[in-house]
Amino acid sequence: MAQIAVAGKQKWWEGGKSPFNVEYGKLMMWYFLMSDAFTFGAFLISYGTVRFASNGWPDPNHVFNSMPFMGHANLPLVFVSIMTFILIASSVTMVLAVGEGHAKNKKGVINYMIATIIGGILFLGCQAWEWHHLHEQGAWWGRNPFMNFDGTQSSTNFTNFFFTITGFHGFHVLSGVVINIVMLIMTVRGVFERRGSYLMIEKAGLYWHFVDLVWVFVFTCFYLF
To answer: Is pTM, for the whole model, over 0.90?
Structure first.
């Protein structure tokens, strides 16, 4: 009787329930994101090590306190908060695009992909303005015009790390926008509809969510501490 019970019991790896039963392309995307996470992690750990080993560091409330068309408005972190909201909102529209893909709703995928692309472009525009504004203040690689909390002159470590890490992240956002545009064109042309699957939208979504998640850590490290 025990043998019959064992024989009739479905094994955990049967019926598509295995955790290793993942589509190849999606698995490769996860591998890529893991390796990319190690790169960002190395950057941020290096930044944190230098940051907390230093006796002085610029106050982010004084560095990031401007708004477009308002000059030195003294609005600490307001602009970067808007940037963050835009990127998170684009992640929400990406989730909705993936959901519409699962429902095989071509029109819904198109609408939400357009919204996601617009969000990414707006974020890049905001970052470009911030870089330009800081450059006008004299900040760049090898140049740091901002004083420490205690009024002493700070080193160039702050600007070197800031432009390198935010630039690296910005490159990822730009890459994500390009990928999403390609996915949108393929959707409009009915490529996924003919395939009967919108799995590629889901893969692009994984990358986009990763970019959004990384920004949360970048935001925390540079703008809050």
So the answer is: no
